[in-house]
Amino acid sequence: MALESNEKSNQPINKFESMLKTDDVYFFDAEDFEDIIHHYLNNGKIALAKKAIKIGLQQHPASIELKLLEVEVLVFENHLDLAENYLDALQVLDSTNEEIFIQRANIYSKKDNHEAAVVLLNKALALSENSFDIHSLLGMEYLFMDDFKLAKESFMRCVSFDEQDYSSLYNVIYCFEFLEEYDGAIHYLNDYLDRNPYCEVAWHQLGKQYFTKKMYSEALTAYDFAIISDDTFIGAYFEKGKVLEKMGKYKDAIENYETTIQMEDPTSHAYLRIGKCHEKLDNDEMAKYYYYHTVHEDPLLDKGWLAITDFYYRRKNHQKALYYINKALNIDGENSHYWKKCAQINTALGKFDQADFAYKQSVELGNYELRTWLGWADVALRNQDIPGAIHILSQGLEFYPESAEIKFKTAGFQLEINDLINARISLIDALKLDFAKLQLFSDQFPQYADTDWVKNIVSKVVRRSR
């Protein structure tokens, strides 16, 4: 009876492993050794690969291919100098072997000399009859160099060689996304799908591009086709749920998220999305149920703790909100937005010292949002540190020099300390930037808004603007 192809391919491996268990020595063709070594390398069994190389070279000491596999292992284990010495000797024997240039390129890549690696890979490309793998390696080198245009072209060539090469397809789309060429990605994927209409991976990626462009109906259609192509494709159900959320179809979104849970072990991310949908539907108890399931499933998922925090914060249960934001900060204390949320909660609780510290942490970690500067300045005022509040606003002004809100607030604080000269300058600047926001000044500083001093400044600015 004829053997199946996978049985044939496993025969040398089974024979080799049988030999290792005994004291017998079996003979293998050099090609069989190559297959055995590739099998072990592809499965991460480096020790067995090295043993096969050693025995293979004992039986076939002149085999350049086996010696090149030995070099590959040396490069993998960072024995770069020894690998280069081996390659020098091999190049004398066979100067037109593209694998020599590929391994030299790998060595340069390991040394972070990606430009030299590209030169060598192009030499290998000129010598190679089968250039698929070389284009893939070139694509990775271009990614290391942040040359996403050339990386994209290399991975496109890989896909043109093998349209089932989904790894390269993902890399093509990654390059499009990094270059923010979403229309280009959509065109490329539609062209690909004309040739491969039942490729769930391509439909899934197309849906993501439409989602990025807020073309939600088109995204929904793409995910539906992904599911038609493979009704077990969990990622398509999950992404479809996100689209339905954006469209306000929360019940349908929940249904899709629940499908992912039924098909595979539940994930914290699915629980989190279901919780948010229930909250949108005002199903508070169900929202809490799924939020708590989120953090139970993955206690290190800071977004889960943040969701619970926001849930209680929106319901003005600030004490519980503080408890849960501290949970999030214990997991990710470098997250500037969590510190800002912590500051807002402490402000609501009247804990202004803690709020001041949290705002400081948020800014130091890179949160330079306008609301952060304004909120922090208000906290400084509550702490009776008006000079500090003015300094905070001056820092914010560096990021938002055209902000009338900062100028109006600064003017009010300067009036608080009777700095009339600077208050006048700040108020005039604010009125020139956005006269309509004078109401913000009136709301926060009513004790000054109706004074003749302020009214005179306002009327002068009005006259000059006519």
TrEMBL record:
It comes from the Bacteria. Gene3D superfamilies: Tetratricopeptide repeat domain. TPR repeats lie at residues 98-131, 132-165, 234-267. InterPro entries: TPR-like_helical_dom_sf, TPR_rpt. Pfam families: TPR_8. Keywords: TPR repeat. The keyword Chaperone does not apply. PANTHER family: CELL DIVISION CYCLE 16,23,27, CELL DIVISION CYCLE PROTEIN 27 HOMOLOG. This is Tetratricopeptide repeat-containing protein. It comes from Pricia antarctica.
